[in-house]
Structures are given as structure tokens and as C-alpha cells.
């Protein structure tokens, strides 16, 4: 609501301090996540390889190979997914640009109030008053039948 109250005096433009800050797009975030996984593989693989060889005396450090495969593969897949499927940066409006106003064809100046706002529009058909719109009672036909029966001579 505070941003809306700032828009009214300026005619729809945001003041300089309230302009929206554009963050990174989903595509660039995805590429950065993938690069992070690749860099993480470059750090974790040698450390895990040294631990498995020197601490656990393994001939083949297979846990390091599995971690390398998962991190490099995951990083490459994340980059590919971001580039193929995620949305790139959306074009932002330059600061202090006003959205174009759309005018209603045939309407008078929208800044002035008319005494009858519907005077420019032709009615689509017969106007109904509120009595025509109210639903009738379910018991109305039965009541009418009872009145007719009571009027019959015996």
C-alpha cells in the first residue's frame, strides 16, 4: 500500500528510490548453481580421494569417483536445464517511464465525471427491475391451487 500511495501523486511513475531492483534471472541462477557444483567437485574429489587412500588404505578410491561423477554430471545437467528451459532476463522498464494509457473508444474524457455514466451506452435489451430478478417461492403455485379450490362451489 505504501508504494501505491507513492504512485498517485506522480501519475503512475515510481520515484527514484522506489524503483524495483531487478535480481538475477532464473536462467542465470541455474547456470551459477551448475558452476558451483562443478567447482565443488574440483574441491571434494581430491580431498575424498586422499582420505580414502590414506585413512582407509583403499587401493582404488571408488567413493571419490562416485562423488566426482555425481557432482560433475549434476552440474552439467543443471546448466543444460537452465539454458534450455528456464526463463531469461525480462526486459525492464526504464526509470520514470509511464505505462501507456488505453482509451475506451467512443468514451468521453475519463478525467471528468459525467452525471450519467451510462448515457453513452445503448441498453442491450429490456431492463429488468429487481422484482423480476427475485426468485419466486416454491409454494406459490401450490398456494394458487388452494385458492382456486376454495373458490369452487360445493
Alpha-carbon distance between the termini? Answer: 75 Å
Q: Major sheet, described briefly? A: none
Shape: elongated
Strand content of the residues, in percent? under 5%
Low-confidence stretches: none
| Estimated radius of gyration | 36 Å
Helix content: 40-55%
Average pLDDT reading: 76
Structural class designation: mainly alpha
Order of SSEs, N→C? HHHHH
Question: How many strand units?
Answer: 0
Count of DSSP-assigned helices: 5
Strand-helix topology:
Blueprint: H1 2-10, H2 26-55, H3 62-85, H4 130-133, H5 140-151
Helix pairs in contact: 2-3
Your description of this structure?
- This protein is mostly helical and 154 residues long.
- It has a domain at 40-87.
- It contains five helices and no strands.
- The longest helix is centred in the N-terminal third of the chain and has 30 residues, at 26-55.
Key attributes of the depicted protein:
51% helix, 154 residues
Summarize the structure.
With 154 residues, the protein is mainly α. Helix content is 51%, strand content 0%.
